[in-house]
Amino acid sequence: MANQQFKILIVAATLATLVLIVPHSGSFVVLLATRAMAFAILAMSVDLLLGFTGLSSMGQAAYFGVGAYLTAVLATKFHFGLGWDFWIVVILGILLGAALAALFGLFAIRAGGVYFLMITLALGQCVWGLAYRWNSLTGGDNGINMSGRPNFGLDLGNEVTFFYLVFAFFAVSMALMYVLVRSPFGQSLAGIRERELRMQILGYNTWLHKYIAFIIAGGFGGLAGVLWAQTNGHVSPETVVLTTSVDSLLMVVLGGSGTLVGAAIGTAIVFGLREYLSTLVPWWQYVLGGVYVLTILYLPMGLMGLLSGVRQRFGSQGKGEGLKKLATKPS
Amino acid sequence: MTNKLQRVLMGSCLALGLGLTTQANAEELRIGYISPVTGIFAQVGKDMVDGFQMYLDEHGGKLGGMDVKFIVEDDQGKPDAGVTKAKKLILQDKVHMFIGGLLASTGYALAPISTSEKTLYISSVSSADDLTQRQLSKYPYFLRTSWTSSLPHQPLGQWACDNGFKKVIVIAADYAFGYETAGGFQKVFEDCGGKVVQKIWPPLGTKDFGPYIPTFKADADAIFTTMVGPMALQFPKQLRGAGVKLPILGSGVSYDEFVLPFMGDEVIGDVSALHYSAAIDTPKNQAFVKAYRAKFGKVPGYYSENNYTTAMWLDEAIKKAGGKYPGPEEFIKIMASIKLDAPRGPVELDENRNPIENVYIKKVEKKKMFGYDKDELWNTVIKTYPKVSQFWTYGKEKFLAQPVYDRDFPPCKNCE
Q: What ranges in B242-327 are assigned the alpha helix state H?
């Protein structure tokens, strides 16, 4: 138990360091950190499904997309969400993401494994198709431009202020998801991941558990979408495209699934390579590809597996519990 | 205590920062360039950069006497990545202006950055109509050196009408660029008395036109088509393979020099319209084509020419400003005052900061050109419409009163 508190302390300390250092390290870094944290909320929602429930969703961009499009459409067509009503948009975004997940879940949760992956992929593509073809609402391929961020006494147009806001959302989301996965409900999800049949025999309604987890993940996806739209000031079908889903999945795998923190680390690394390294060298894609390949070959538990490996070697209390848990997890 | 320390630290940082900026200000023009140099549009992105870089290289890396720091950033063909990179260029590299953007969607995403950061954005390829039409007032720090999607296709509508075509089928990729090219063609063609009898919108990236070709109306006498990327290669092949012999009037990008070398003889005789053709028979263009081909091993398309011309335009403007960058408002005025003689012909900005330029009606022919000894496909110019404006002959007021060309505008009155 002391071990767990220690971990929380490390995460909290890292977050505190981030919030202290980033605002003083150049506007581009602030922007990148903001983007990465908004996206990390999506990646963590994927981890909720992949790492804790054992469902590999390939359509998480759908909830992300509806959150983003909701924000953009409300802001441009109804001038809504540009003041304090930004908070209403946040809530609406979460609700819409969750509602869409509730709808899609009816189709998807019945299946498992590859079939679940295919169904979520197909449903995600439906949302992309809508975004692409419904010109009058979404602007089609051109997308929607938003004119500036909300200002409710607090001017979010300021990159640093906005960074603090997104940081707060990120930290709170992480804390909430952490509480969720540690709760009895979260434990039962882990049980489903490990052996669904046994959970059924024990009397759990596993369909309902998975369905609820799916809806919660959708809600966080919607939240991430709202923040993403505000970060870029622009929403286009690129936001909802399949690659966004795949990216979020890869980030989770890279960081280490079933850890939440791993999802955030994976996001940070991918964004760092794709958006920072790419400004320095033209061969950044090889680095990104290399990192993926090496991680999958040598660190099947992701970078977090590396950390627990180190702890296991040098610490006494680890006993490889975490490592074993991750290693046996179906992917 | 901490407060004091913080102040000292910040002070020294500030001093350092100031030191850096004064150093950087030594008459250096910093140009950010955004282009998809990775991803599915990588080759086009590279052609764009090559065009600009070629002009720089020819002029010793200087524009108008200023040393140029040319910073290329990759947007991967994604609008939001473009936004991030534009902000990086402005915030970190402190560029004077940023140029580029390939897709219409990227153009729409980048233009607002120019407004919010008060930095000049020059769209050197991206052709989204409305940026220099109904939305112009939102973007005071924006100008275009390339074209609007509908600009060359409005004259094509006129040409089709003048050459006796009566009923045309429109088949174009299902996105804004497709709507705007087809819309421009249809508007002018129908105003002149022609009829568009059918409109088909295959999704972007369609490779199998089998489901569409048999639905073509039998009484049509030509096909207007806008195809991009792999679609451009597949469509003529499958159309002729299916035995359809109707003449094609196409968008210039479907037959651009970028795709032309990969096409077969089935495209010979196809007509298209654009503001550039590598086969424009002027000494200036011949010199450009030869120099480009010697350097990059292929014939330049409009992606390269547009960026070469952009660099040339900047060169003139900086020269006129006295070898310095005078800030965006002043610079736009200077750019607008210049009449340029580019490889594509004479170019100048209209009052909406979009080029007035020649439009070339081109026919694909297999022949020898500019002294090259092999028979190749060239876009032979068969008719030149000089000094075409984005508003065609309608005039600005009347043109802007109608909505932007869309899937349903102009409406298809003669479709059943």
A: 283-296, 302-320
From CA A147, how far away is CA A76, in angstroms rounded? 8
Summary count for chain B: helices (H), strands (E) = 11, 15
Q: How far apart are CA B262 and CA B354, in angstroms?
A: 31
Give the mean pLDDT of B13-25: 43
Q: DSSP letter at A227?
A: H
Q: Closest approach of chain B CAs to the CA of A265, in angstroms?
A: 20
Mutate to test the interface with B, among A28, A147, A244, A288 (most CBs of B within 10 A): A28
Q: How far apart are CA A249 and CA B218, in angstroms?
A: 50
As given in the structure block, the two tokens for residue B54 are 């070629």
Which residue in the block uniquely carries the two structure tokens 């569409």?
Answer: B212
Q: What structural domains and CATH numbers belong to chain B?
A: 7-149+284-357 (3.40.50.2300), 153-281+358-401 (3.40.50.2300)
DSSP-assigned letter for residue B203: P
Are B105 and A32 a contacting pair at CB < 8 A? Answer: no
Three-class secondary structure assignment of A294-311: HHHHHCCCHHHHHHHHHH
- A185 Cβ partners below 8 Å, 6+ apart? A209, A212
B204: which chain A residues are within 8 Å (Cβ-Cβ)?
Answer: 141
Strand B28-35's sheet: what is its strand order?
Answer: B62-63, B66-74, B28-35, B97-100, B120-123, B142-144
Residue-wise pLDDT tens digits, B357-416: 999 999 999 999 888 888 999 999 999 999 999 999 999 999 999 999 988 889 988 887
C-beta neighbour count of B27 within 10 angstroms: 10
Over residues A181-204, mean pLDDT: 90
- At A319, the pLDDT band (50, 70, 90 cuts) reads very low
Identify the bridge partners of residue A91 per DSSP, sorted by sequence position.
none
Q: Do A28 and B91 touch (CB under 8 A)?
A: yes
pLDDT digits (tens, 9 = 90+) for A68-123: 999 999 988 888 888 888 899 999 999 999 999 999 999 998 887 889 999 999 99
Q: What is the pTM of this model?
A: 0.83
* Of B342, B324, B352, the residue nearest B143 (C-alpha): B352
State the ipTM, two decimals: 0.78
Model confidence at A25: pLDDT above 50: yes
Nearest to B84 among A141, A275, A282 (CB): A275
B297 sits in the region (left: phi over 0; alpha: psi -120 to 50; else beta) called left
Q: What is residue B272's three-state secondary structure? A: strand
Q: Which residues of B touch A140 (CB under 8 A)?
A: 175-176
Residue A133 has pLDDT above 90, yes or no: no
Report the residue count for chain B. Answer: 416
Closest alpha carbon to B98 in B60, B52, B50 = B52
Q: Does B407 touch chain A (CB under 8 A)?
A: yes
